[in-house]
Amino acid sequence: MVTTGTKFQPSKLILPSRNRAIMFAVQLEATMISLNLVFFATISLTAASGLAATCIGLFGDTRHNAGQRAVAEKFAQIALIGAAAVASLLAVSSQSEAE
Question: Domain containing 80: what range?
Answer without folding.
Answer: 35-98
